[in-house]
Hints:
With 272 residues, the chain is mostly beta strands. The protein has strands spanning 15-16, 19-20, 23-28, 38-49, 62-68, 71-77, 80-83, 93-96, 112-115, 124-131, 138-143, 145-150, 156-159, 165-167, 172-178, 186-190, 196-202, 207-212, 223-232, 241-242, 246-251. The strands form six sheets. Strands 14, 16, 17, 19, 20 and 21 form a six-stranded mixed β-sheet that branches. It is rod-shaped.
Amino acid sequence: YGTALGATQLNATATYNGNPVAGTFTYTPLSGTVLNAGANQTLSATFVPSDTTTYVTPASPVTTTITVNTAALSITANNASRVYGTTNPTFTASYAGFVNGDTAANLTTQASVATSAIPTSPVGGYAITPSGAASANYTISYVNGTLTITQATSSTTLTSACMRTFVAGQPFTQSAAVSGANATGTVTFNDGNGGTLCNSVALNTGAATCNSSALAVTGAGTSSVYNLSANYSGDGNYHSSASNALLVTVLRATDVVFRNDFETQTLSCPIE
Length: 272
């Protein structure tokens, strides 16, 4: 398919007693015609001799059959990528082997291109599979592409339900929330001065909590300020991220006046 009829196919001859006879052949289909693929298609030739005094035109044309083989067409799924947790892009395909000016629009049935990956499929590579195209003129083969799913960006937010000024040594609770459905990994809570308050706390449904009494007044002053932060480790599907700073002030216990014996109690939140 795709080869125009020419002298190789339209090659009738006229003879008399074994000798060639000059004249003109008219072919059906005409020279230059591109036939669709198929077996046993009819070619016919009508002959008119140049010397019509000696020879008469044959009463009927001569015929033969021709088989037009299918052309080879390869359909390749184009590679694509997306971020974890998002929907798949619209997949496309490339074609190699079209002849006779054909395009994908000439296919009887268009190719479909799909993958097994869904939004929650883990980071990695997944086959993009073309299939389903049809055409009587082509023998179609397929080449898979690859969908690459990359890590999503995460964000970490550090908060505390408690007040931000409290006495050194009092228990203090802070929570880190990590964005992203099904995020796993750990969170490390830092005091902002090079120390670690809670190390590698596992996420539980996107959150981690740090309970610590380790904040103290440093130096000779009556208080110290800490810019607390939390670092999320990331996992196979999410990039790591660092939180906002949470500013707290710690007072030296010897410089604080206690009432009602609060200093000996365990409180859910520090008392300013």
